[in-house]
Every structure is written in structure tokens, then in C-alpha cells.
Amino acid sequence: MTETAESLFQSGVDRYQAGEEPDTLIPVFKEVCDRSPKNSSAWTCLAWLYLLADKPNAAYKAAQKAVKLHPQDPQARVNLSLAMLESGQKGVRSHVETAQQLMMVDSELSKEVKGSIEDGLQRKPDWKSLQRIKSWLLD
Question: Could you tell me the maximum CA-CA distance found in the chain, to the nearest angstrom?
């Protein structure tokens, strides 16, 4: 029996939360995105994994798709901003400001973004771009 995209996604999230390395999870989330190309959460996760694996160009493409599919997702905007910073692109501020506004409106989303920032800094303590985004969003 083949796994559904949804169960594959959940299993990937569970494995990530258990501490599995991003490089081993990227193929899982790529498959979820292939099977379910309109799943913005899968694209958001894939972008995050690419960022953790130091692949900003791939992260940028995945984050762009996530934002296009769900413009009101602050995590997708944060990922896009990070990918833009890491790959030296311009236009970061508007995405950070949008993420900030979305976080002000929804405290649950705000909590999730703060949690992912902390998670990112635990997994990659010297992540300068994430430290900058954190200071822009939370200070």
C-alpha cells in the first residue's frame, strides 16, 4: 500500500521533530510537493529544509511557491525572506513587513513562527540571516 501525500507529509514532520537531518528529509518533502503541488505547507517545509541544508536557491524557489499558494502564511514569508538574504537578493523588507503584520493579527501564527525561529537557531546556531530576521520581527 502506498502512502498518501498527507500521511507522507505527517511522517516527514514527525521525523523532523524527532531531530532527523534536513538532508534526509528533503526527498520526502519533494515527493509530497510532487504528489500535492498545491499544498503550501509542504512547500513551506521544503523551503525550510533547504535553508537548513544551506541550499538558498532551491529554498527560494520552494518559498516562492509557498507564498504564491498561501500569501497569508507568515512562515512562508519568513522562509522567502531568509532565502532572499542568503542568496543576496533585494526586496526582503516587504516580505518581513507582511509577516510582521500577519503575526500581529494571529497570535497562534505568531507563536508558530517564533517557535520555528528558535528551532532554526538551535539546529544552526550561527545562522546570521535568521538572527537578522528574528531581530526585525521580534525586537
Answer: 49
Range of the domain at 9: 5-138
Give the predicted TM-score (pTM) of the model.
Answer: 0.94
Lookup: cell for 127: 545562522
CATH number at residue 30: 1.25.40.10
One-letter amino acid at 33 equals: C
CA–CA separation, 101 vs 119, rounded Å?
22
The C-alpha R_g of the chain, in whole angstroms, comes to 14
For every one of its 139 residues, what pLDDT tens digit does the chain have, with 9 covering 90 and above?
Answer: 467 999 999 999 999 999 999 999 999 999 999 999 999 999 999 999 999 999 999 999 999 999 999 999 999 999 999 999 999 999 999 999 999 999 999 999 999 999 999 999 999 999 999 999 999 998 7
Domains held by the chain: number: 1
Long-range residue pairs from 24-32, CB within 8 A, at least 24 positions apart, any chain: 25/49, 26/50, 26/53, 32/5, 32/8
